């Protein structure tokens, strides 16, 4: 090993088919020892069991008093929308026209893209998010800047340039042929470059002509190991619009499905108003969905049905969906997911919530063999949580009887103040200021 870390560790060690299985695979080691070799995990065990392996006790990094969990996975976010988060008053379609499109117009500029990429990745890391599936804008420059910045940090990131050729302002649309060419060049440049991967990113059906979707299908055939990332069934008006734009299709998902855009590496954001057949199609094709509670509440889109998602056996991860989402914090996102559950009489346990934010999200992105837990051989991406940073948290935490209650308090009261440090690829890439002083 090249690095030894002592602290309390929590993870879920296996992918599950029902939340009832989760407690069996939850691992909590109150005094643990994590060994790394470069960017990889060698082992996680109790301090007592592992201490004899240590070559030199003084070189152990001591995070005792902190809780270390796998890095959070954000399965749906728009980096260019960072600068318009908290835009007042509108629901999806008007919100896009009034706020989103004007902001996205700026990303033809490489300098602006580079500045916002750095800011965006800093927000992810300071919130404990180590992997994300990210929308750029229609401009290739936006994605070049984001991938360059993520590459320098060693982050595992999946992103893509938006593809759209109708129902958006002229300054944000392209021809299907341009979209194809530019996407192809980006795939050649970035896909499988280090820890980076490319996602074909048609914005959503309403901004895609049949010809554009044909180009997306062609790219997926030419590059079958790329991802597919888009929106699905978020807002009732949007769904009606899709039906009128694609009258020959059997509903919203069928538009994507007919162009063979469903599959193991396809991620559909929102999926709030699906019918039975659509859930079944997602399951049958191995497609995944992104649950974005803060966005769905903020835009008044509706309540995602977690119970149905489990019953239908559809892979699911958490998404912040910034800038329709109102926070980069996965902890806050889990807290809002709990409330969305409450409104439907679904009890989201802390164990389940942390699974969705880590290994479940990794699985939704088809990355569960690489990230999402402390399993030996996986990549060393993790978050050091300070479980109690405010007086309220300290008081409430002291009153918590076990790890389950502590995790629940953390996802209900926690936010970026609780992130003490974030590690990516075996390196500490972000530290809270008080930690810096202590170091
Ligand atoms: N549907 C199409 N584009 C968008 C977007 O930028 N944000 C959200 N939340 N939904 C969309
Ligand atoms: Fe979105």
Automatic annotation (TrEMBL):
One of its GO terms (molecular function) is guanine deaminase activity. Binds 1 zinc ion per subunit. The keyword Hydrolase applies. It comes from the Bacteria. Pathway: Purine metabolism; guanine degradation; xanthine from guanine: step 1/1. GO terms for cellular component: cytosol. CDD domains: GDEase. The keyword Hydrolase applies. Its cofactor is Zn(2+). InterPro entries: Amidohydro-rel (IPR006680), Guanine_deaminase (IPR014311), Metal-dep_hydrolase_composite (IPR011059), Metal_Hydrolase (IPR032466), Metallo-dep_hydrolases (IPR051607). Residues 68-428 form the Amidohydrolase-related domain. Signal peptide: none annotated. Its EC number is 3.5.4.3. Catalyzes the hydrolytic deamination of guanine, producing xanthine and ammonia. This is Guanine deaminase.
């Amino acid at each position: 090993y090249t690095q030894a870390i002592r602290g309390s560790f929590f993870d879920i060690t296996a992918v599950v088919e029902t939340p009832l299985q989760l407690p069996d695979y939850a691992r909590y080691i109150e005094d643990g020892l994590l060994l790394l070799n470069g960017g990889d995990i060698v082992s996680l065990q109790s301090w007592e069991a592992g201490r004899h392996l240590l070559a030199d006790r003084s070189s152990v990094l001591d995070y005792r008093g902190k809780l270390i969990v796998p890095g959070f996975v954000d399965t749906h976010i728009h980096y260019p929308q960072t600068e318009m988060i908290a835009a007042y008053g509108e629901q999806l379609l008007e919100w896009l026209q009034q706020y989103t499109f004007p902001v996205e117009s700026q990303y033809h500029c490489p300098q602006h893209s580079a500045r916002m990429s750095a800011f965006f990745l800093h927000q992810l890391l300071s919130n404990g998010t180590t992997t994300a599936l990210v929308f750029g804008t229609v401009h290739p420059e936006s994605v070049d800047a984001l991938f360059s910045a993520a590459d320098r940090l060693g982050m595992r990131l999946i992103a893509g340039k938006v593809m759209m050729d109708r129902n958006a302002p002229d300054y944000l649309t392209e021809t299907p042929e341009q979209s194809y060419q530019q996407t192809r060049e980006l795939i050649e440049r970035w896909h499988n470059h280090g820890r980076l991967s490319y996602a074909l990113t048609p914005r959503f059906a309403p901004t895609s002509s049949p010809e554009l979707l044909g180009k997306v299908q062609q790219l997926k055939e030419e590059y079958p190991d790329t991802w597919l990332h888009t929106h699905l069934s978020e807002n009732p008006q949007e769904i009606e619009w899709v039906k009128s734009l694609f009258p020959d299709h059997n509903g919203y998902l069928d538009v994507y499905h007919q162009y063979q855009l469903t599959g193991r590496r396809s991620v559909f954001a929102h999926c709030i108003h699906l019918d039975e057949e659509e859930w079944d199609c997602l399951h049958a094709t191995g497609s995944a969905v992104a649950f974005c509670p803060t966005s769905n509440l903020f835009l008044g889109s509706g309540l995602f049905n977690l119970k149905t998602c489990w019953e239908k056996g559809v892979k699911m991860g958490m998404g912040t969906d910034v800038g329709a989402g109102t926070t980069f914090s996965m902890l806050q996102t889990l807290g809002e997911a709990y409330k969305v559950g409450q409104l439907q009489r679904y009890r989201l346990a802390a164990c389940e919530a942390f699974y969705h934010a880590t290994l479940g999200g990794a699985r939704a992105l088809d990355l569960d063999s690489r990230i999402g837990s402390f399993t030996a051989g996986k990549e060393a991406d993790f978050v050091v949580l300070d479980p109690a940073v405010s007086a309220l948290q300290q008081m409430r935490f002291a009153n918590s009887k076990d790890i389950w209650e502590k995790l629940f308090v953390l996802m209900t009261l926690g936010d970026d103040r609780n992130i003490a440090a974030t590690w990516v690829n075996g390196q500490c890439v972000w530290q809270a200021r008080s930690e810096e002083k202590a170091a």
